[in-house]
Amino acid sequence: MGIDIQHVIELWPEILKAFGQTMYMIGISLAVAIIIGLPLGIILFVTDRGLFLENRVIKGILGFIVNMVRSIPFIILLVALIPLTKLLVDSTIGPAAASVSLSVAAIPFFARIVETSLREIDKGVIEAAIAVGATPWMIIKDVLLPEAKSSLVQGITLTIISLVAYSAMAGVVGGGGIGDLAIRFGYYRYDNTIMIVTVVILIVLVQIIQQLGDWTSKAIDKR
């Protein structure tokens, strides 16, 4: 099983297109995950027992929803969200359609990471902020987020890497991207060269993301 360089050159436009589609899907779903997942994770934390906005009802309802979505295998989620995907983007195939399922999967994933990151903060810091009369919003903005920023960057890195894997899986149902290329050329046409190239691209992409995430996390870590 070798790599036919000439064959790779011939398919290079397809490879670049697939890579661009993968980055498009990851970009959209990551943005949605941060916009919705970050406040969701904060709410999960601050409404927990003993915290300054303790609310068992909200904590229980949101926790149940997050756990429910996270328990559904992504390939099943892809199929289950077809009606929603059709409603939002008027299509069930392509990168934009796949981004809907990726976003839904990423939101609870990142929310739990945010909650876990905030739990690592020394409770004494929070108690000190409460003691000096800080409002809940001030505690979140000036204490929780700054204290957890290094851990949150690591969480974003982990989320991106998970989205890379999910986006490849989306290719099974015509979602576009690297996974779609591997299925159409590598699997259906028994093209070993494309299979190898797509795997290498994904490995290199994950390594770069991890290295950048680690570097950024260390750079902003004030400890």
From TrEMBL:
It is a multi-pass membrane protein. The chain crosses the membrane at residues 23-46, 58-81, 93-111, 123-140, 152-178, 190-209. Residues 19-213 form the ABC transmembrane type-1 domain. Its main location: membrane. InterPro entries: AA_ABC_Transporter_Permease, MetI-like, MetI-like_sf. One of its GO terms (cellular component) is plasma membrane. Keywords: Cell membrane, Membrane, Transmembrane, Transmembrane helix, Transport. It comes from the Bacteria. It is found in: Cell membrane. GO terms for biological process: D-methionine transmembrane transport. Belongs to the binding-protein-dependent transport system permease family. CysTW subfamily. This is ABC transporter permease. It comes from Paenisporosarcina quisquiliarum. The lineage of its organism: Bacteria, Bacillati, Bacillota, Bacilli, Bacillales.
